[in-house]
Write a structure and sequence with these properties.
This protein is α/β, with parallel strands linked by helices. 22% of the residues lie in helices and 14% in strands. Strands 3, 4, 5, 6, 7, 8 and 9 form a seven-stranded parallel β-sheet that branches. The N and C termini lie far apart (88 Å). This is Isochorismatase family protein.
């Protein structure tokens, strides 16, 4: 087994090359680094087959060659109010949203189902992320949620913690041009933190993928609520940023839409 920690200290952050596949079958294989890329199946890159480190694609860093650039509408919601109500208020002010569900676990299916149904009712674009098999075993989108996703949904498989490491996601954001993201999923102190705030030197798993970037570093606001996020610790509750809106409350069920009375025709005499 390759010692990941020891190997990483011997690699320059600028050294990137494709390994010789024939040399990857022994413990003496040369350690390598490469940028994250678009992949089509979670099994396309296997950690045990390709020893090394996959890093955040350097063309996707903020203001990078292939990075999304958005001019997000300035709007500040009331985080002391209820989550769905505030999103509706923002929509009334022409704020455009996109939903990002990240590595959702079985325990989150009910609440995530409600969130997807709400977003579909508001014509909010939905992006569902999976994690490649190189590290995580919770990579698949639960079948109950897959059935709810819009047809012709682009498959987004991330090779690092942050959803912004996926080139296809940057192209999708450029296409739909949201003013803010709604984020739900797992894990609060890992993939969610990296996807929202990026990573810093004190990020406990930084060794795996080096520095990563999140929504706020691209100037994109994020709306979320603690019950939409699975966490092992309370670290997520401590995350703060002017563009991160964490709401105090969320309803257990979607609020019913105002009933619209249908006019009835008078019977013809």
């Amino acid at each position: 087994m390759i010692n990941m920690a020891a190997s990483a200290t011997n690699i320059s952050s600028t050294n990137s090359f494709e390994p010789n596949v024939s040399d990857l079958t022994t413990e003496e294989s040369e350690y390598f680094r490469r940028d994250s890329k678009d992949i089509e199946t979670v099994n396309e890159v296997k950690f045990q087959d390709l020893p090394g480190e996959i890093i955040f694609n350097q063309t996707l860093i903020p203001r990078g060659l292939n990075a999304v650039t958005l001019n997000c509408k300035i709007y500040k919601p009331n985080v002391n109010s209820e989550f769905y109500f505030q999103i509706e208020k923002a929509i009334e002010q022409n704020v455009r949203f996109a939903l990002c569900i990240v590595d959702v676990r079985d325990s989150q299916i009910l609440r995530t189902t409600q969130l997807i149904q709400f977003c579909k009712s508001k014509s909010i674009p939905i992006f569902a992320f999976e994690y490649s098999n190189n590290i995580c075993v919770f990579e698949d989108i639960p079948s109950e949620l897959k059935a709810l996703l819009p047809k012709n949904q682009p498959r987004l498989i991330k090779e690092t913690f942050s959803i912004f490491s996926v080139p296809k996601f940057h192209r999708e954001l450029t296409r739909v041009k949201p003013d803010a993201l709604i984020v739900a999923g797992s894990i609060g102190e890992c993939c969610i933190k990296a996807s929202i705030l990026g990573t810093s030197d004190d990020f406990k798993c930084m060794l795996w993928h080096d520095k990563e970037y999140g929504a706020v570093q691209y100037g994109i606001p994020v709306y979320t609520q603690s019950r939409l996020i699975f966490s092992h610790t309370k670290l997520f509750d401590e995350l703060e940023h002017p563009l991160l809106y964490k709401f105090d409350d969320i309803t257990d069920h979607i609020r019913p839409q105002p009933h619209i009375k249908q006019r009835t025709k008078k019977p013809v005499k």
